[in-house]
Amino acid sequence: MGNSLNKFEQFNDVFKILAKCTDDYLFILDFIEDHFNITERGAERFNIPCADFYNALEIISGAVHPEDKEMLANNLEMIKSGQSSEHDLEYKWLDKNGNAVWISCRGQAIYNEQGQANYLVGRISELGRKNKIDNITGLYREIKLRQDILDIGKPGTNGFLLLIGIDNFKDINERYSKEVGNTTLQGLAECVVNIAGNKAEVYRMSGDEIMLLCTDAGPVIDDPAKYMYKKIRAAVDEKIGEKGYRLFYTISGGYVYFTEYDNFGLDYIDRAEFALRLAKIRGKNMCVCYEQNDYSEYVYKLELQEALRKAAENGFDGFELYYQPIVNTKKACIYGAEALLRWQNKKFGMVSPGIFIPLLEESGLIIPVGRWVIEEAMRQCLKWQERCPGFRVNINISFVQLKKSNVISDIDTYIEKYGFSSNNVLFEITESGELESGYATHSILEAFHRRSLNLAIDDFGTGYSNLRYIKEMMFNLVKIDQAFIRGIKSSQYDYMVVKQFTELAHSLNLKVCYEGVETEEDFKCVMELKPDYIQGFYFSKPVPVAEFEEKYLGKEKVF
Ligand code: C2E
Ligand code: MG
Ligand code: MG
After folding, report:
1. β-pairing verdict for 533-535 and 201-204
2. pLDDT for 314-353, tens place per residue?
3. Mutate to test the pocket of ligand 1, among 396, 397, 514, 538 (most ligand atoms within 8 A of CB)
4. What's the pTM?
5. Residue 347 φ then ψ, to 5°
6. Which residues are near ligand 3, the ion (C-beta closer than 5 Å)?
């Protein structure tokens, strides 16, 4: 025994020196004495009592992840019995908090004169440190996926990538804590691994995303990726149910099938990421398959947004206001005009406001562009007032301007700058879910009211038709959406809704404007309902300044 202790101690001394030169943990296991020694940092990291202990196999077994105990015991048995002299395993130890830590353990057996394995000497290194394994979920990391996908290497592989993400993961981290976020992610990882079984390899991507790589899927026509997503979702729901819905969350998925004609490789990862992004944009808790068309549209919109930014920076190049007459039905005359934004560009031509306005809103560009619209429309209106005293203009205001800029102060600035009378301008705000959300918009609308700025609720009937705003008299005018007006001739229901609503508005002293009156038949039909104003192609489409001046300005009777 004295001899063996010496050898043990000799190794120990060498380890103390080597420990300073490596991140790995060096160890010696004495099979005969059941004695173990590991460099000091190893004892601090793993779930073992100290760096040097007897009763080695039992204690080590307690520090190994339950899933891996048997494999390790078998391997050590093979070495002890002389069937194998090399120890080379990747498996999981537990850290001081009981979390799994992926390690690579390599060692060499040393035999005594009787040919018995006496020692195992080697090193343990943490795979997480080498970036291969994620220590939170125990999954391979993206770096490994990138190798694996290149290894598949050939077009025509029958498989897919499926990327799963937790919806609103940031909220979980912020509302609870990072630890709760991590536990949630671990729970999801377990579900994914269970469902993937041996059909797919699983990887932790950045943030809350987990990727499945399947290289042997069934026929694409059966949509096996979607099927797998649904099974994962069901497993997640079940887990949440078991925990009593204390922490409820949903998951989204994006997937892409490998195809024969494409360059195989890394851009498949980008495609799965793009599909997941679409799933989130489209409302979350769903799964989207990558389609080339969606991607082309996305790129088109990005380019458009970039061109819009350049145009705005470049003196609002290509932006122009068109005007559509608004007809006063009692006097059969033109009451004013709605200013409607247009944009054109060499590359994209004339782009529909239905496309570019949401892009301006998403990027926040609607704030400077909206300011430009307010100033431009007021200047134009003043000019027209020289020929037509009291001429009025309606200006559209986006909820982004309301929420993210001080639009009232902008309006005041121009009213002051041009000595404009606030009676001659009216601001149209579209009725939408965005308007609904919260106290903030409510108080901004109140500020309009206090400043005696005229407000219209635009596209009424398409959003929540919030009668509360109307009751609180925040608006002066209600513009009923074209969809109702279009339906008025064919649908008794639409007819009744418009009729009742017009009467209700009138009883509250509000004015009513009908949008989208297109034909003479429409016109005759809606006139029965006694709107105050009408706007529609029947009188005119929105037209450029010169055309408006020529055709409509100062015209006495329009019908
Ligand atoms: P909106 O404010 O409801 O404007 C009325 C829209 O209905 C205009 O579309 C107009 O061309 C269209 N329209 C008018 N009469 C008829 C008709 O008889 N039949 C049909 N089918 N359509 C008719 P446009 O110009 O394409 O504008 C679409 C939307 O873009 C506007 O709806 C408004 O929400 C937004 N928008 C336009 N200019 C601005 C702006 O300067 N700022 C903001 N924030 N939004 C704007
Ligand atoms: Mg409008
Ligand atoms: Mg409208």
Report:
1. unpaired
2. 999 999 999 999 999 999 999 999 999 999 999 999 999 9
3. 396
4. 0.73
5. -75, -40
6. 458-459, 515
